[in-house]
Amino acid sequence: MEQNRSNGDNFLVDLYKTAVTNADPRTEQWLFVASPLPALAAMFGYFAVVWVGPKLMENRKAIDLGHFLTVFNFGLVALSFYITKEFLMSAILSGHWLTCQPIDYSDDPLAIRMASACWFYYISKYIETADTVFFILRKKGNQITFLHVFHHGTMIFNWWMCVKYIAGGCTVFHAVINSIVHVIMYTYYGLSALGPAVQPYLWWKKYVTKIQLTQFVIILGHCIYVGTHCHFHLKGFVFLAIFYAVCMITLFTNYYYQEYVRRSRLKAE
Fold first, then answer.
1. Where are the transmembrane segments (predicted)?
2. pLDDT digit string (tens) for 232-249?
3. Given 67, 96, 148, 151, which residue is catalytic?
């Protein structure tokens, strides 16, 4: 019994030492990076809001957020565009390839610029959780799916780990793809928030879902390539990314089937 406890203590000590040793010293003092507590608090706080929020709104009228939603969504379009631009510019100027590119942990200005883009992307995950709050306030419970909650909640902690340990290199490929998709997605949301007059022009909603699904197929392929062809020093992150991509592909495929395929069949009947 004592031997097992000792082994367990040693494992935790080794795990802690590994976590400290592999941390990126450049991002250590950046906001919400030094400790996992802010990311964990935000993640579990988000899940709590998802659970409690609809109950609090149950006997209240839906709140019309009007043009605020349009401003919010186009604000995220601008932020996503800025993040995409920062990733691409720092990659192009440094001759960065997004396949087997090692992480540059130096204080080179372009390496810092790329790490900063990772941090902005991480912070954007906090901001994007407001989507769910707005659904709750507007009593749009049908849009708060498991896919929606799982993705918003977990991305915060996922990208805390990325900024803490792997802010750069081939890691940024996933963020670039996702940021481009978010430019398209939040453009759609922003236009949708303008009201009924714009609705006839939003026939391309299902293509937004297809684009979201396609991004995770691309990300999965990239992760497999990195895991099999690259000397990535923290392989655990590759396996975690593969697992996450498979989860998202499964959830998006199910959502697409339920929302478009199954619904169209029911209408035909």
1. 30-53, 65-83, 157-177, 183-204, 211-228, 234-257
2. 888 899 999 999 999 999
3. 151
